[in-house]
Amino acid sequence: MVELGVELAGIRLRNPTILASGILGVTPATLKRAAKGGAGAVTMKSLGPEPRQGHPNPTVLEWECGLINAVGLSNPGVEAGAKEVAEAVKKVKAPVIASFFAKDAAEFGVVAGRLAAAKPAMLEANLSCPNTIREMGIPFAYEPEHAAEAVKAAKERAGDIPLIAKLSPNTHRLKEVAKAVEAAGAGAINMGNTLGPGMLIDVDARKPILANKAGGVSGPAIRPVAVRCVWDVYESVKIPIIGTGGVGSGRDALEMIMAGATAVGVGSAVASGGFKVFGKIAKEMEEWMAKNGVSSVRELVGVAHK
Amino acid sequence: MGMAKILEVREENPRMRTLFLDAAMKASPGQFAMLWIPGLNEKPLSFSYCGEGRVGFTVAKVGPFSEKLSQMKVGELVGVRGPFGNGFKPKWDRIAIVGGGCGAAPLGFLAEELARKGAKVSFVVGAKTKGELLFAERARSAGAEVLVCTDDGSEERKGFATDALKDLLEKGKIDAVCTCGPEIMMRKVFELCEAKGVECQASLERWMKCGFGVCGQCAIDGFLVCKEGPVFPSSKLRRMREFGTLKRDACGLPLKA
Protein backbone atom coordinates (compact mmCIF):
# COMPACT_ATOMS: atom_id res chain seq x y z
CA MET A 1 0.00 0.00 0.00
CA VAL A 2 1.25 3.44 -0.82
CA GLU A 3 0.49 6.47 1.34
CA LEU A 4 -1.14 9.44 -0.38
CA GLY A 5 -1.94 11.38 2.78
CA VAL A 6 -0.19 14.71 3.27
CA GLU A 7 -0.16 17.43 5.88
CA LEU A 8 -0.57 21.10 5.07
CA ALA A 9 0.13 23.54 7.90
CA GLY A 10 -1.13 20.99 10.40
CA ILE A 11 -4.21 19.98 8.37
CA ARG A 12 -4.32 16.39 7.18
CA LEU A 13 -5.44 15.60 3.63
CA ARG A 14 -6.21 12.00 2.64
CA ASN A 15 -4.61 12.73 -0.74
CA PRO A 16 -2.87 15.78 -2.24
CA THR A 17 -5.69 16.92 -4.58
CA ILE A 18 -7.52 20.13 -3.71
CA LEU A 19 -10.51 21.62 -5.52
CA ALA A 20 -9.22 25.05 -6.58
CA SER A 21 -11.09 28.21 -5.72
CA GLY A 22 -13.59 29.47 -8.28
CA ILE A 23 -14.28 26.01 -9.66
CA LEU A 24 -17.64 24.41 -8.75
CA GLY A 25 -17.46 25.79 -5.21
CA VAL A 26 -20.37 28.22 -5.19
CA THR A 27 -22.45 26.07 -2.81
CA PRO A 28 -21.83 23.58 0.03
CA ALA A 29 -23.59 20.88 -2.03
CA THR A 30 -21.10 21.12 -4.91
CA LEU A 31 -18.17 21.06 -2.47
CA LYS A 32 -19.65 17.91 -0.97
CA ARG A 33 -19.75 16.27 -4.39
CA ALA A 34 -16.12 17.25 -5.12
CA ALA A 35 -15.09 15.60 -1.83
CA LYS A 36 -17.14 12.55 -2.77
CA GLY A 37 -15.34 12.59 -6.12
CA GLY A 38 -12.09 12.13 -4.23
CA ALA A 39 -10.77 15.62 -3.44
CA GLY A 40 -8.38 15.68 -0.48
CA ALA A 41 -9.66 19.17 0.38
CA VAL A 42 -12.10 21.61 -1.21
CA THR A 43 -11.98 25.38 -1.62
CA MET A 44 -15.07 27.55 -1.65
CA LYS A 45 -15.25 30.33 -4.24
CA SER A 46 -13.62 33.55 -2.97
CA LEU A 47 -15.77 35.70 -0.72
CA GLY A 48 -15.39 39.45 -0.40
CA PRO A 49 -16.72 42.09 2.00
CA GLU A 50 -19.90 42.79 -0.04
CA PRO A 51 -22.05 40.93 -2.59
CA ARG A 52 -20.60 41.30 -6.09
CA GLN A 53 -22.15 40.39 -9.43
CA GLY A 54 -18.82 40.09 -11.21
CA HIS A 55 -18.50 40.70 -14.94
CA PRO A 56 -21.26 40.08 -17.47
CA ASN A 57 -20.99 37.00 -19.70
CA PRO A 58 -19.03 35.68 -21.51
CA THR A 59 -17.00 34.99 -18.38
CA VAL A 60 -15.55 31.51 -18.93
CA LEU A 61 -14.46 30.06 -22.26
CA GLU A 62 -12.78 26.91 -23.48
CA TRP A 63 -10.02 27.20 -26.07
CA GLU A 64 -7.63 24.67 -27.63
CA CYS A 65 -5.24 24.32 -24.69
CA GLY A 66 -7.28 25.23 -21.64
CA LEU A 67 -9.67 27.84 -20.33
CA ILE A 68 -9.74 31.59 -20.04
CA ASN A 69 -11.95 33.35 -17.53
CA ALA A 70 -12.88 36.72 -16.16
CA VAL A 71 -15.69 35.93 -13.76
CA GLY A 72 -14.75 39.00 -11.76
CA LEU A 73 -15.05 37.70 -8.19
CA SER A 74 -18.83 37.34 -8.18
CA ASN A 75 -19.83 36.27 -4.68
CA PRO A 76 -22.67 36.67 -2.18
CA GLY A 77 -20.55 38.66 0.28
CA VAL A 78 -18.97 37.43 3.50
CA GLU A 79 -22.12 37.77 5.58
CA ALA A 80 -24.17 35.26 3.55
CA GLY A 81 -21.02 33.41 2.48
CA ALA A 82 -19.80 32.68 6.02
CA LYS A 83 -23.05 30.81 6.67
CA GLU A 84 -22.40 28.66 3.62
CA VAL A 85 -18.84 28.02 4.77
CA ALA A 86 -20.17 26.88 8.15
CA GLU A 87 -22.69 24.61 6.41
CA ALA A 88 -19.95 23.19 4.18
CA VAL A 89 -17.72 22.52 7.20
CA LYS A 90 -20.58 20.51 8.71
CA LYS A 91 -21.51 18.57 5.57
CA VAL A 92 -18.29 17.97 3.63
CA LYS A 93 -16.15 14.99 4.57
CA ALA A 94 -12.86 16.71 3.69
CA PRO A 95 -11.15 19.86 4.94
CA VAL A 96 -12.92 23.00 3.70
CA ILE A 97 -10.77 25.96 2.69
CA ALA A 98 -12.43 29.39 2.74
CA SER A 99 -11.00 31.66 0.06
CA PHE A 100 -11.40 35.41 0.36
CA PHE A 101 -10.38 38.69 -1.22
CA ALA A 102 -10.53 42.37 -0.36
CA LYS A 103 -9.45 45.69 -1.82
CA ASP A 104 -7.04 46.69 0.98
CA ALA A 105 -5.19 45.21 3.94
CA ALA A 106 -7.67 46.39 6.57
CA GLU A 107 -10.54 44.75 4.68
CA PHE A 108 -8.51 41.53 4.39
CA GLY A 109 -8.41 41.50 8.18
CA VAL A 110 -12.15 42.07 8.54
CA VAL A 111 -13.14 39.36 6.06
CA ALA A 112 -10.62 36.88 7.51
CA GLY A 113 -12.07 37.46 10.97
CA ARG A 114 -15.64 36.85 9.85
CA LEU A 115 -14.70 33.71 7.96
CA ALA A 116 -12.58 32.37 10.82
CA ALA A 117 -15.75 32.39 12.93
CA ALA A 118 -17.24 29.83 10.49
CA LYS A 119 -14.38 27.46 11.41
CA PRO A 120 -13.03 26.35 8.03
CA ALA A 121 -10.01 24.02 8.13
CA MET A 122 -7.95 26.72 6.44
CA LEU A 123 -8.28 30.24 5.10
CA GLU A 124 -6.93 31.22 1.70
CA ALA A 125 -6.13 34.86 0.97
CA ASN A 126 -6.69 35.39 -2.74
CA LEU A 127 -3.98 37.96 -3.42
CA SER A 128 -3.87 37.34 -7.11
CA CYS A 129 -7.12 37.69 -9.10
CA PRO A 130 -6.00 39.17 -12.45
CA ASN A 131 -9.54 40.08 -13.58
CA THR A 132 -10.53 42.96 -11.36
CA ILE A 133 -7.64 45.35 -11.88
CA ARG A 134 -9.92 48.18 -13.08
CA GLU A 135 -12.00 48.03 -9.90
CA MET A 136 -9.49 46.88 -7.30
CA GLY A 137 -6.07 47.76 -8.60
CA ILE A 138 -3.01 45.63 -9.26
CA PRO A 139 -3.16 42.31 -7.37
CA PHE A 140 -1.39 42.26 -4.00
CA ALA A 141 0.70 39.28 -5.05
CA TYR A 142 2.62 41.30 -7.65
CA GLU A 143 4.66 43.15 -5.02
CA PRO A 144 6.17 41.69 -1.81
CA GLU A 145 5.24 44.73 0.33
CA HIS A 146 1.55 44.63 -0.69
CA ALA A 147 1.29 40.88 -0.31
CA ALA A 148 2.88 40.97 3.15
CA GLU A 149 0.56 43.73 4.34
CA ALA A 150 -2.57 41.82 3.33
CA VAL A 151 -1.32 38.55 4.82
CA LYS A 152 -0.32 40.23 8.08
CA ALA A 153 -3.74 41.85 8.45
CA ALA A 154 -5.55 38.59 7.68
CA LYS A 155 -3.29 36.56 9.98
CA GLU A 156 -4.05 38.84 12.92
CA ARG A 157 -7.75 38.02 12.63
CA ALA A 158 -7.48 34.36 11.57
CA GLY A 159 -6.99 33.05 15.11
CA ASP A 160 -5.51 29.55 15.06
CA ILE A 161 -6.78 28.76 11.55
CA PRO A 162 -3.87 28.29 9.13
CA LEU A 163 -3.68 30.89 6.39
CA ILE A 164 -2.76 30.10 2.78
CA ALA A 165 -1.48 32.92 0.58
CA LYS A 166 -2.55 32.45 -3.03
CA LEU A 167 0.14 33.93 -5.24
CA SER A 168 0.35 34.87 -8.90
CA PRO A 169 2.65 33.74 -11.70
CA ASN A 170 2.36 37.25 -13.12
CA THR A 171 5.21 38.93 -11.26
CA HIS A 172 8.92 39.20 -11.77
CA ARG A 173 9.32 39.39 -7.98
CA LEU A 174 7.90 35.95 -7.16
CA LYS A 175 10.69 34.78 -4.85
CA GLU A 176 10.54 38.01 -2.85
CA VAL A 177 6.75 37.78 -2.65
CA ALA A 178 6.95 34.19 -1.38
CA LYS A 179 9.48 35.15 1.30
CA ALA A 180 7.40 38.16 2.31
CA VAL A 181 4.17 36.20 2.84
CA GLU A 182 6.04 33.54 4.80
CA ALA A 183 7.51 36.20 7.06
CA ALA A 184 4.07 37.81 7.43
CA GLY A 185 2.63 34.61 8.87
CA ALA A 186 1.27 32.54 5.98
CA GLY A 187 1.16 28.84 6.88
CA ALA A 188 1.20 27.73 3.23
CA ILE A 189 1.45 29.13 -0.29
CA ASN A 190 -0.90 28.33 -3.13
CA MET A 191 1.15 28.72 -6.32
CA GLY A 192 -0.93 29.95 -7.93
CA ASN A 193 -3.59 31.84 -9.76
CA THR A 194 -4.27 32.03 -13.50
CA LEU A 195 -1.66 33.28 -15.97
CA GLY A 196 -1.86 36.49 -17.89
CA PRO A 197 -4.28 38.01 -18.25
CA GLY A 198 -4.77 36.80 -21.80
CA MET A 199 -7.29 37.63 -24.48
CA LEU A 200 -9.28 35.89 -27.20
CA ILE A 201 -10.69 37.87 -30.11
CA ASP A 202 -13.43 36.50 -32.32
CA VAL A 203 -12.27 37.24 -35.83
CA ASP A 204 -15.77 37.37 -37.31
CA ALA A 205 -17.07 39.63 -34.54
CA ARG A 206 -13.81 41.60 -34.56
CA LYS A 207 -14.12 41.91 -30.77
CA PRO A 208 -12.63 40.35 -27.62
CA ILE A 209 -14.95 37.54 -26.53
CA LEU A 210 -14.77 37.95 -22.74
CA ALA A 211 -16.96 40.82 -21.54
CA ASN A 212 -13.98 41.95 -19.46
CA LYS A 213 -11.89 41.67 -22.66
CA ALA A 214 -8.93 40.10 -20.81
CA GLY A 215 -8.98 37.12 -18.45
CA GLY A 216 -6.83 34.63 -16.57
CA VAL A 217 -5.52 31.69 -18.59
CA SER A 218 -5.60 28.22 -17.04
CA GLY A 219 -5.39 24.55 -17.96
CA PRO A 220 -2.70 22.47 -19.70
CA ALA A 221 -1.27 25.52 -21.50
CA ILE A 222 0.06 27.03 -18.27
CA ARG A 223 1.34 23.90 -16.52
CA PRO A 224 5.01 24.44 -17.39
CA VAL A 225 4.81 27.99 -16.02
CA ALA A 226 3.11 26.81 -12.84
CA VAL A 227 5.72 24.08 -12.34
CA ARG A 228 8.54 26.60 -12.68
CA CYS A 229 6.81 28.96 -10.22
CA VAL A 230 6.46 26.13 -7.68
CA TRP A 231 10.14 25.37 -8.23
CA ASP A 232 11.12 28.99 -7.50
CA VAL A 233 8.90 29.24 -4.43
CA TYR A 234 10.25 25.93 -3.06
CA GLU A 235 13.74 27.38 -3.26
CA SER A 236 12.63 30.49 -1.37
CA VAL A 237 10.52 29.31 1.59
CA LYS A 238 10.08 26.53 4.17
CA ILE A 239 6.25 26.55 4.34
CA PRO A 240 4.35 23.95 2.26
CA ILE A 241 3.19 24.74 -1.29
CA ILE A 242 -0.02 23.88 -3.13
CA GLY A 243 0.90 23.60 -6.83
CA THR A 244 -1.93 24.85 -9.02
CA GLY A 245 -1.99 25.20 -12.79
CA GLY A 246 -2.97 22.69 -15.44
CA VAL A 247 -2.96 19.55 -13.31
CA GLY A 248 -5.23 16.93 -14.89
CA SER A 249 -3.50 13.59 -14.35
CA GLY A 250 -1.48 11.69 -11.75
CA ARG A 251 1.72 12.42 -13.66
CA ASP A 252 0.91 16.16 -13.73
CA ALA A 253 0.39 16.06 -9.96
CA LEU A 254 3.65 14.16 -9.41
CA GLU A 255 5.47 16.73 -11.54
CA MET A 256 4.20 19.53 -9.28
CA ILE A 257 5.17 17.58 -6.19
CA MET A 258 8.65 16.88 -7.52
CA ALA A 259 9.01 20.62 -8.18
CA GLY A 260 8.28 21.20 -4.49
CA ALA A 261 4.52 21.10 -3.95
CA THR A 262 3.03 19.20 -1.02
CA ALA A 263 -0.48 19.29 -2.51
CA VAL A 264 -1.96 20.16 -5.90
CA GLY A 265 -4.86 22.43 -6.84
CA VAL A 266 -7.18 21.13 -9.56
CA GLY A 267 -9.42 23.47 -11.51
CA SER A 268 -9.73 23.48 -15.29
CA ALA A 269 -9.46 19.68 -15.44
CA VAL A 270 -12.97 19.55 -13.97
CA ALA A 271 -14.25 20.66 -17.40
CA SER A 272 -13.49 17.27 -18.89
CA GLY A 273 -13.16 15.10 -15.78
CA GLY A 274 -16.13 16.32 -13.75
CA PHE A 275 -16.44 15.74 -10.01
CA LYS A 276 -14.53 12.44 -10.27
CA VAL A 277 -11.32 13.97 -11.61
CA PHE A 278 -9.83 14.17 -8.08
CA GLY A 279 -10.19 10.45 -7.46
CA LYS A 280 -8.81 9.73 -10.91
CA ILE A 281 -5.69 11.85 -10.29
CA ALA A 282 -5.13 10.26 -6.85
CA LYS A 283 -5.50 6.77 -8.29
CA GLU A 284 -3.01 7.48 -11.08
CA MET A 285 -0.51 8.82 -8.52
CA GLU A 286 -0.99 5.71 -6.44
CA GLU A 287 -0.36 3.45 -9.42
CA TRP A 288 2.81 5.25 -10.42
CA MET A 289 4.10 5.14 -6.85
CA ALA A 290 3.35 1.41 -6.48
CA LYS A 291 5.13 0.68 -9.76
CA ASN A 292 8.15 2.76 -8.77
CA GLY A 293 8.47 1.53 -5.20
CA VAL A 294 7.57 4.81 -3.52
CA SER A 295 5.77 4.20 -0.24
CA SER A 296 4.74 7.74 0.62
CA VAL A 297 4.05 10.73 -1.60
CA ARG A 298 5.83 12.88 0.98
CA GLU A 299 9.14 11.35 -0.12
CA LEU A 300 8.68 12.97 -3.54
CA VAL A 301 8.24 16.57 -2.44
CA GLY A 302 10.96 18.59 -4.13
CA VAL A 303 12.97 15.56 -5.32
CA ALA A 304 13.67 17.25 -8.64
CA HIS A 305 15.85 19.75 -6.78
CA LYS A 306 18.23 17.06 -5.54
CA MET B 1 -18.57 27.53 -32.47
CA GLY B 2 -18.30 31.24 -33.23
CA MET B 3 -20.38 33.84 -35.01
CA ALA B 4 -23.40 32.76 -37.06
CA LYS B 5 -25.47 34.75 -39.51
CA ILE B 6 -29.18 35.26 -38.95
CA LEU B 7 -30.94 33.64 -41.94
CA GLU B 8 -34.54 34.31 -41.00
CA VAL B 9 -36.56 35.96 -38.25
CA ARG B 10 -40.01 34.51 -37.67
CA GLU B 11 -42.77 36.01 -35.57
CA GLU B 12 -44.17 33.10 -33.50
CA ASN B 13 -46.67 35.25 -31.62
CA PRO B 14 -46.88 38.95 -30.69
CA ARG B 15 -44.39 38.40 -27.85
CA MET B 16 -41.97 35.90 -29.32
CA ARG B 17 -39.66 35.62 -32.30
CA THR B 18 -37.47 32.86 -33.61
CA LEU B 19 -34.02 33.63 -34.95
CA PHE B 20 -32.76 31.05 -37.43
CA LEU B 21 -28.97 30.93 -37.52
CA ASP B 22 -26.66 29.58 -40.19
CA ALA B 23 -25.05 26.88 -38.01
CA ALA B 24 -24.77 23.17 -38.70
CA MET B 25 -25.12 22.06 -35.08
CA LYS B 26 -26.53 18.74 -33.94
CA ALA B 27 -28.72 19.37 -30.93
CA SER B 28 -31.51 17.39 -29.32
CA PRO B 29 -34.65 18.94 -27.81
CA GLY B 30 -33.88 20.33 -24.35
CA GLN B 31 -30.21 21.08 -25.05
CA PHE B 32 -29.12 24.70 -25.09
CA ALA B 33 -26.51 27.06 -26.52
CA MET B 34 -24.95 30.24 -25.17
CA LEU B 35 -25.89 33.14 -27.44
CA TRP B 36 -23.54 36.11 -27.47
CA ILE B 37 -24.17 39.69 -28.51
CA PRO B 38 -20.73 41.37 -28.48
CA GLY B 39 -20.57 44.26 -26.05
CA LEU B 40 -23.80 43.28 -24.29
CA ASN B 41 -23.99 39.82 -22.74
CA GLU B 42 -24.19 36.08 -23.33
CA LYS B 43 -27.19 33.99 -22.23
CA PRO B 44 -28.35 30.40 -22.44
CA LEU B 45 -31.21 29.63 -24.85
CA SER B 46 -32.68 26.25 -25.65
CA PHE B 47 -32.86 25.10 -29.26
CA SER B 48 -36.35 25.46 -30.68
CA TYR B 49 -35.44 24.21 -34.16
CA CYS B 50 -32.50 22.19 -35.48
CA GLY B 51 -31.70 20.69 -38.84
CA GLU B 52 -30.67 21.24 -42.46
CA GLY B 53 -27.69 23.37 -41.51
CA ARG B 54 -29.57 25.80 -39.34
CA VAL B 55 -30.72 26.18 -35.75
CA GLY B 56 -33.52 28.26 -34.25
CA PHE B 57 -33.86 30.02 -30.91
CA THR B 58 -37.16 31.49 -29.79
CA VAL B 59 -37.01 34.54 -27.55
CA ALA B 60 -39.42 36.76 -25.66
CA LYS B 61 -38.44 40.25 -24.57
CA VAL B 62 -37.80 39.89 -20.85
CA GLY B 63 -34.68 42.03 -20.34
CA PRO B 64 -32.09 44.11 -22.20
CA PHE B 65 -30.44 41.05 -23.75
CA SER B 66 -33.55 39.34 -25.08
CA GLU B 67 -34.92 42.69 -26.18
CA LYS B 68 -31.82 43.35 -28.29
CA LEU B 69 -31.73 39.76 -29.56
CA SER B 70 -35.35 39.86 -30.68
CA GLN B 71 -34.71 43.10 -32.59
CA MET B 72 -31.83 41.69 -34.62
CA LYS B 73 -32.22 41.43 -38.38
CA VAL B 74 -31.46 38.97 -41.14
CA GLY B 75 -27.78 39.11 -42.06
CA GLU B 76 -26.56 40.21 -38.63
CA LEU B 77 -24.18 38.01 -36.63
CA VAL B 78 -24.78 36.34 -33.25
CA GLY B 79 -22.18 34.35 -31.31
CA VAL B 80 -23.19 30.79 -30.50
CA ARG B 81 -21.45 28.25 -28.21
CA GLY B 82 -22.79 24.77 -27.71
CA PRO B 83 -24.75 22.57 -27.82
CA PHE B 84 -24.55 22.05 -24.07
CA GLY B 85 -26.27 19.83 -21.54
CA ASN B 86 -28.66 16.93 -21.73
CA GLY B 87 -32.02 17.09 -23.48
CA PHE B 88 -35.26 15.19 -22.95
CA LYS B 89 -34.84 11.44 -23.18
CA PRO B 90 -38.24 9.85 -22.88
CA LYS B 91 -38.17 6.20 -23.93
CA TRP B 92 -41.91 5.74 -23.58
CA ASP B 93 -44.83 5.41 -26.01
CA ARG B 94 -47.42 7.79 -24.60
CA ILE B 95 -45.96 11.12 -23.63
CA ALA B 96 -47.47 14.34 -22.38
CA ILE B 97 -45.54 17.53 -23.04
CA VAL B 98 -46.41 20.39 -20.72
CA GLY B 99 -45.28 23.93 -21.47
CA GLY B 100 -46.05 27.31 -20.00
CA GLY B 101 -45.45 30.74 -21.52
CA CYS B 102 -42.07 31.22 -23.20
CA GLY B 103 -40.90 28.02 -21.46
CA ALA B 104 -42.55 26.16 -24.33
CA ALA B 105 -39.61 27.22 -26.58
CA PRO B 106 -37.97 23.76 -26.82
CA LEU B 107 -41.24 21.83 -26.81
CA GLY B 108 -42.39 22.19 -30.43
CA PHE B 109 -39.04 20.70 -31.45
CA LEU B 110 -39.55 17.94 -28.88
CA ALA B 111 -43.09 17.16 -30.13
CA GLU B 112 -41.77 16.81 -33.68
CA GLU B 113 -38.91 14.54 -32.64
CA LEU B 114 -41.13 12.30 -30.52
CA ALA B 115 -43.81 12.06 -33.20
CA ARG B 116 -41.13 11.14 -35.72
CA LYS B 117 -40.04 8.29 -33.44
CA GLY B 118 -43.63 7.02 -33.29
CA ALA B 119 -44.67 8.20 -29.82
CA LYS B 120 -48.24 9.21 -29.08
CA VAL B 121 -47.91 12.81 -27.94
CA SER B 122 -50.31 15.00 -25.96
CA PHE B 123 -49.14 18.61 -26.14
CA VAL B 124 -50.44 20.64 -23.22
CA VAL B 125 -49.61 24.30 -23.59
CA GLY B 126 -50.58 27.15 -21.32
CA ALA B 127 -50.22 30.93 -21.51
CA LYS B 128 -51.69 34.01 -19.92
CA THR B 129 -53.70 34.78 -23.03
CA LYS B 130 -54.37 33.51 -26.56
CA GLY B 131 -51.71 35.71 -28.19
CA GLU B 132 -48.92 34.26 -26.02
CA LEU B 133 -49.49 30.60 -26.90
CA LEU B 134 -46.42 28.99 -28.44
CA PHE B 135 -46.10 26.07 -30.85
CA ALA B 136 -49.66 24.74 -30.51
CA GLU B 137 -50.10 24.66 -34.30
CA ARG B 138 -46.63 23.23 -34.80
CA ALA B 139 -47.39 20.35 -32.43
CA ARG B 140 -50.75 19.75 -34.13
CA SER B 141 -49.03 19.56 -37.53
CA ALA B 142 -46.61 17.01 -36.06
CA GLY B 143 -49.60 14.84 -35.18
CA ALA B 144 -49.90 15.57 -31.46
CA GLU B 145 -53.15 15.90 -29.57
CA VAL B 146 -53.09 19.58 -28.51
CA LEU B 147 -54.70 20.85 -25.31
CA VAL B 148 -54.64 24.61 -24.88
CA CYS B 149 -55.11 26.41 -21.56
CA THR B 150 -55.22 30.18 -21.08
CA ASP B 151 -55.34 31.99 -17.75
CA ASP B 152 -57.98 34.39 -19.11
CA GLY B 153 -59.98 31.82 -21.09
CA SER B 154 -59.34 33.61 -24.41
CA GLU B 155 -58.56 30.27 -26.09
CA GLU B 156 -60.00 26.84 -25.30
CA ARG B 157 -59.78 25.89 -21.64
CA LYS B 158 -59.65 28.61 -18.97
CA GLY B 159 -57.09 27.55 -16.40
CA PHE B 160 -53.54 26.26 -16.03
CA ALA B 161 -51.69 23.66 -18.06
CA THR B 162 -51.43 21.62 -14.88
CA ASP B 163 -55.25 21.33 -14.75
CA ALA B 164 -55.28 19.74 -18.21
CA LEU B 165 -52.36 17.47 -17.29
CA LYS B 166 -54.20 16.33 -14.17
CA ASP B 167 -57.17 15.18 -16.30
CA LEU B 168 -54.85 13.37 -18.70
CA LEU B 169 -53.12 11.57 -15.84
CA GLU B 170 -56.52 10.66 -14.31
CA LYS B 171 -57.45 8.93 -17.57
CA GLY B 172 -54.27 6.89 -17.12
CA LYS B 173 -53.09 7.18 -20.70
CA ILE B 174 -49.65 8.68 -20.05
CA ASP B 175 -46.30 6.91 -19.47
CA ALA B 176 -44.10 9.98 -19.07
CA VAL B 177 -44.31 13.77 -18.92
CA CYS B 178 -41.80 16.27 -20.31
CA THR B 179 -42.09 19.83 -19.05
CA CYS B 180 -40.56 23.26 -19.46
CA GLY B 181 -41.94 26.53 -18.16
CA PRO B 182 -42.19 28.55 -14.97
CA GLU B 183 -40.58 26.59 -12.13
CA ILE B 184 -43.72 26.75 -10.00
CA MET B 185 -45.61 25.05 -12.84
CA MET B 186 -42.93 22.39 -13.31
CA ARG B 187 -42.92 21.68 -9.58
CA LYS B 188 -46.68 21.10 -9.75
CA VAL B 189 -46.27 18.88 -12.85
CA PHE B 190 -43.66 16.84 -11.00
CA GLU B 191 -45.91 16.43 -7.97
CA LEU B 192 -48.85 15.32 -10.12
CA CYS B 193 -46.57 12.76 -11.80
CA GLU B 194 -45.24 11.51 -8.47
CA ALA B 195 -48.78 10.98 -7.18
CA LYS B 196 -49.51 8.77 -10.19
CA GLY B 197 -46.12 7.06 -10.38
CA VAL B 198 -45.43 8.57 -13.82
CA GLU B 199 -41.90 9.54 -14.95
CA CYS B 200 -41.31 13.28 -15.21
CA GLN B 201 -38.52 15.12 -17.02
CA ALA B 202 -38.20 18.83 -16.29
CA SER B 203 -35.97 21.43 -17.93
CA LEU B 204 -34.58 23.63 -15.15
CA GLU B 205 -33.06 27.08 -15.34
CA ARG B 206 -30.42 28.67 -13.10
CA TRP B 207 -27.97 31.54 -13.49
CA MET B 208 -25.41 30.31 -15.98
CA LYS B 209 -21.86 31.34 -16.76
CA CYS B 210 -19.54 28.78 -18.32
CA GLY B 211 -22.11 26.34 -19.73
CA PHE B 212 -19.79 23.33 -19.43
CA GLY B 213 -19.62 22.43 -15.77
CA VAL B 214 -16.67 24.26 -14.23
CA CYS B 215 -17.85 27.46 -12.60
CA GLY B 216 -20.56 25.94 -10.41
CA GLN B 217 -22.83 28.99 -10.67
CA CYS B 218 -25.87 27.05 -11.92
CA ALA B 219 -25.83 24.37 -9.20
CA ILE B 220 -29.13 23.19 -7.78
CA ASP B 221 -28.61 20.95 -4.73
CA GLY B 222 -25.14 20.14 -6.07
CA PHE B 223 -26.39 19.18 -9.56
CA LEU B 224 -24.93 21.27 -12.38
CA VAL B 225 -27.82 22.49 -14.53
CA CYS B 226 -25.54 23.28 -17.49
CA LYS B 227 -23.82 19.91 -17.68
CA GLU B 228 -25.99 17.37 -15.84
CA GLY B 229 -29.22 19.11 -16.85
CA PRO B 230 -30.88 21.25 -17.90
CA VAL B 231 -33.36 18.36 -18.25
CA PHE B 232 -33.50 16.22 -15.11
CA PRO B 233 -35.48 12.98 -14.62
CA SER B 234 -37.69 12.20 -11.62
CA SER B 235 -34.92 10.24 -9.90
CA LYS B 236 -32.88 13.46 -9.61
CA LEU B 237 -35.79 15.88 -9.14
CA ARG B 238 -36.72 13.86 -6.04
CA ARG B 239 -33.33 14.65 -4.51
CA MET B 240 -33.62 18.42 -5.02
CA ARG B 241 -34.80 20.51 -2.11
CA GLU B 242 -34.20 23.67 -4.14
CA PHE B 243 -36.45 22.67 -7.09
CA GLY B 244 -39.32 25.14 -6.90
CA THR B 245 -37.99 26.80 -3.76
CA LEU B 246 -34.55 28.37 -4.18
CA LYS B 247 -32.33 29.83 -6.88
CA ARG B 248 -29.26 32.08 -6.86
CA ASP B 249 -28.61 35.46 -8.45
CA ALA B 250 -25.48 36.60 -10.29
CA CYS B 251 -23.67 37.04 -6.96
CA GLY B 252 -24.62 33.54 -5.83
CA LEU B 253 -27.03 34.89 -3.20
CA PRO B 254 -29.90 32.49 -2.50
CA LEU B 255 -33.34 33.80 -3.53
CA LYS B 256 -36.84 32.35 -3.57
CA ALA B 257 -37.35 30.44 -6.84
Biggest sheet: strand arrangement of chain A: 3-4-7-8-9-10-15-16
Q: What structural class results from the helix and strand content of chain A?
A: alpha/beta
Number of strands of chain B: 17
CATH top level class name of the largest domain in chain B: Alpha Beta
Low-confidence stretches of chain A: none
Q: What is the CATH architecture descriptor of chain A?
A: Alpha-Beta Barrel
Count of discrete domains of chain B = 3
Average pLDDT over all residues of chain A: 96
User: What do the pLDDT scores of chain B average to?
Assistant: 94
Number of helices of chain A: 10
Number of strands of chain A: 16
| Rg estimate of chain A, integer Å | 18 Å
Q: Helix amount of chain A, in percent?
A: 25-40%
Largest sheet of chain A: 8 strands, parallel, barrel
Under CATH, the topology of chain A can be stated as TIM Barrel
> What is the ordering of alpha helices and beta strands of chain A?
EEEHEEEHEHEHHEHEEEEEHEHEHH
Structure in a nutshell:
The complex is a heterodimer of chains A (306) and B (257). With 306 residues, chain A is an alpha/beta fold.
How would you describe this protein?
The complex is a heterodimer of chains A (306) and B (257). By secondary structure, chain A is of the alpha/beta class. Chain A has one domain: Aldolase class I (TIM Barrel, Alpha-Beta Barrel), CATH 3.20.20. Chain A has ten helices and 16 strands. In chain A, the strands form four sheets. Chain A has an eight-stranded parallel barrel with strand order 3-4-7-8-9-10-15-16, surrounded by eight helices. In chain A, strands 5-6-14-11 form a four-stranded antiparallel sheet, with no helix packed on it. Chain A has a two-stranded antiparallel sheet with strand order 1-2. In chain A, strand 7, helix 3 and strand 8 form a beta-alpha-beta unit. In chain A, helix 6 packs across helix 7. Chain A starts with 5 loop residues before the first strand and ends in a 15-residue tail after the last helix. In chain A, 63% of the residues are buried. Chain B has 257 residues and is an alpha/beta fold. Chain B is built from six helices and 17 strands. A seven-stranded mixed sheet of chain B has the order 10-9-8-7-11-12-15, with helices on both faces. A six-stranded antiparallel beta barrel of chain B has the order 1-2-5-4-3-6. Chain B has a two-stranded antiparallel sheet with strand order 13-14. In chain B, helix 4 runs parallel beside helix 5. The interface between A and B is large, with 41 and 35 residues.
